[in-house]
Specification:
The structure is a homodimer.
Chain A lengths: L4 E6 L8 H13 L3 E7 L1 H8 L9 E5 L10 H7 L4 H10 L5 E4 L3 H12 L13 E3 L4 E5 L9 H19 L5 E6 L9 H11 L5 E7 L10 E3 L2 H26 L3 H20 L7 E4 L5 E5 L5 H16 L2 H9 L3
Parallel strand pairs in A: 1-2, 1-4, 2-3, 4-11, 6-9, 7-8, 7-9
Antiparallel strand pairs in A: 5-6, 10-11
C-alpha cells in the first residue's frame, strides 16, 4: 500500500484565494489517491467554495482559521501576532507532525519567516533557501536561493549547492546534476567578493558535480542543473525571467495584430505556438520548495490558479517518498 | 558650421574585428558629415579592409598599432603591458585630446580598466559606471552600472543615479527621467544591506526624480528611465535579458516549424514579427557609455556588426554636443 502524504494547504493565501486554492485542492485529491489535505482557513468560506467540486470527502479536513495574513504585512510581525491566521495554523500542523507538508500562495516573506520560525531548520542547516525550478531550453534548472536570505555568506552558498544537488538528483531525477555559481564572467578570478570566496570552496567539494561559473546569459540555455546564488541575485533572475518573457510575448502579439496578413498567419500558428511556449512556462512546476526545514514548505506563485496549486500539492508526494529532508541532512553532515 | 567630433575607433577589438569595425567606420563617415575617425590597429590589415568601401577619405586617418588585446587576457596586465595595442593607443588619443571619444567592441574588462587608467575619472567621480540602454516595452532605459565595479558602496550608487539622470535627460531627451533602484520588493524596508543604505540617500536628493524601488519583473515594462544597481546585479540583468530573449525566440521558431499549418502561418507573420521584434533589439543603441571619465568611452557589444559600430560612433556626436561630461561634473558638484 502506498504511503499517504498529508498536506496542509493555506486556503486564504494568494491573489486568487480562496477560490482557486480550494479548486486546486479538490483537483489534487481527485488526481492522486495517496494525498490527504488539511484545508486551512475560514471554515464557512471554504465549505461554500467546496460545494462546487467533486472530490473524495474522506481525504479532506477543513481546519478553521479566522485570520488572514495579507501580502503587504511585515512578515515577522504577521507571523508572531496572527496566531489564528491560516498560515500560522497550517505551519503548526507540520511542526506537530500532523501534516508532512505546507503549501501556500500567500506572502513570500511570511512563508519564509513562518517556515523557519514555526517548523524550524533541520540539523546542520544554516539557512533555508527558496529554490524554484525555472524553465530552460533543455528542461528545468533549480535556482537556489530566491528567498529573503539576502547578504548571504560563502558557507551558506556551499550548503545551497549541496541541498540543490540532492533535490535535482532525487526529486527531478537528474544523475550527477551540474552545479554552477552565478557570475559575471566564466573565469575563476571574476566576480564580487562573495563569489570569489565561494568558488574555490565549491571547487573543492567532492560530493557535488561543480562545473564552475555560469553567466546569466547561459541560464535559459540550461547550461547547469543547479544555479547557486545569493537571494538578491536569485530574486532578480527569477523576476526578470518572468518580466522579459511576458513583455516579449506582448510585443509579439502586437506584431501579430498589425496587419491582415499577420492576423491570418497568427490563426495558423496559434496551436503550435501554444504548445511550444508551454515548455517555457514555469507554472507547470507548481511551487518552489523552501529547503532545509524539518518539514516541507512549498511556496506557490502569488497568482497561482487551481492547476498550479494542484501541481504544488502533487510535488509534495515525491519529496516525502524520496525522503529529501533526511538526504539533505546527510549531505550536509560531512561539514 | 557644425563642430567636428573626432572618434578613435579600436579596429582590432571584438568578435568580428577588423572586418565589421572597418566597415562600420566607413558607414559612419558616409552617414555623418561632422565625424572624423582615427582608425587604430594594424595598418596594413586596415588598409586592405578599407579598399572594399566608399568613404570620405579626408575624414579618416589610420593610426598603426601592432599589438592586439585579446578578450581572455587579464585586463589590468593587458593595459599595462601592451603599450602598442590598438586599445591603449586609441585611449591615449582621447587622453591627449587628439580625439573626443573612444569606441571599441573589444574586451569589456580592458576597456573599463583602460578608460579609468589612461583617460582617467573626471573631477568628483568616485567610480566610472558602464551604462547600456536596454530595450523596454515603452522605449529604452539606462541600466547603470553593468561594468566591473563590483562590491559598490552606497555613495557610488548615488553618483550613478545622478550621472544616469544627466545622460537620459540630455542624450536621450527625457524630461525629469524617473530613477529607480533595483530591489527585491517595492517597499522601502526591503532589500540587502546596500539597497537599504542607498534608498534613503536617493530619496533625499532634490535634483533627481527618484521613484523608489523597481523589481526586476518591471524593468522590461519600462517602469523607470534610469535603473540603478551595483555592477554584479547589472551584469546579471543585462545578460539575462539577452539570454531569455534569444532562447524564447528559438523556442518560438521551433514551434513554427512543427507542422505544415504553422509553417504557412510563419511565412505570413514574418514581416510583421520582424518589425516589432526590432523594437526589442538592443543592437539599435550601438554601445554603452562608460560615464564619468575625462573623455568619452563607448563599449560596443563583442559581437557587433558594422551597423552597431556605426551607431556607437554616431552616439558620440550627441554626447559631445550636449557636453555631457561637464554636466555630470556639475551634477556631482553639489556633494
Amino acid at each position: 500500500m502506498e504511503e499517504i502524504v498529508k498536506v496542509a494547504v493555506d486556503a486564504m493565501g494568494g491573489d486568487n484565494a480562496p477560490g482557486e486554492i480550494v479548486k486546486g485542492a479538490a483537483k489534487a485529491l481527485r488526481e492522486n489517491d495517496n494525498i490527504y489535505i488539511y484545508l486551512v482557513g475560514q471554515k464557512d468560506v471554504i465549505e461554500k467554495e467546496l460545494e462546487s467540486y467533486e472530490y473524495p470527502k474522506e481525504r479532506i479536513e477543513i481546519v478553521d482559521a479566522p485570520d488572514v495574513i495579507e501580502t503587504a504585512e511585515p512578515p515577522v510581525m504577521a507571523i508572531r501576532r496572527k496566531k489564528e491566521s491560516s498560515m500560522v495554523i497550517a505551519l503548526k500542523l507540520v511542526k506537530d507532525k500532523v501534516a508532512d507538508a505546507f503549501v501556500s500562495a500567500g506572502s513570500s516573506g511570511a512563508i519564509l519567516v513562518g517556515g523557519q520560525l514555526i517548523i524550524g531548520k533541520a540539523k546542520g542547516v544554516k539557512r533555508a533557501p527558496l529554490a524554484p525550478l525555472i524553465p530552460t531550453e533543455k528542461g528545468a534548472s533549480l535556482l537556489i536561493d530566491c528567498g529573503a536570505n539576502v547578504d548571504a555568506r560563502a558557507e551558506h552558498l556551499v550548503q545551497f549547492a549541496k541541498m540543490g544537488s540532492v533535490y535535482m538528483e532525487n526529486v527531478v531525477g537528474i544523475n550527477h546534476p551540474r552545479v554552477a555559481i552565478v557570475n559575471i564572467g566564466a573565469e575563476e578570478e571574476k566576480g564580487n567578493a562573495l563569489v570569489k570566496e565561494t568558488y574555490p570552496m565549491l571547487k573543492s567539494l567532492e560530493d557535488i558535480n561543480f562545473v564552475g561559473s555560469i553567466e546569466a546569459r547561459d541560464i535559459p540555455r540550461g547550461d547547469a542543473d543547479v544555479i547557486v546564488c545569493e537571494a538578491f541575485a536569485g530574486n532578480v533572475i527569477l523576476k526578470l525571467y518572468e518580466g522579459v518573457g511576458s513583455v516579449m510575448l506582448s510585443v509579439i502579439k502586437q506584431g501579430l495584430l498589425s496587419s491582415l496578413r499577420a492576423k491570418i498567419g497568427a490563426l495558423l500558428i496559434k496551436p503550435a505556438l501554444k504548445k511550444t511556449l508551454k515548455k517555457f512556462d514555469s507554472s507547470q512546476y507548481g511551487g518552489a520548495p523552501l529547503l532545509g526545514l524539518k518539514g516541507l514548505v512549498v511556496k506557490a506563485h502569488g497568482s497561482s490558479t487551481a492547476t498550479e496549486i494542484a501541481n504544488a500539492i502533487r510535488q509534495c508526494i515525491e519529496f516525502k517518498q524520496q525522503n529529501i529532508n533526511n538526504k539533505i541532512t546527510e549531505a550536509l553532515g560531512d561539514e
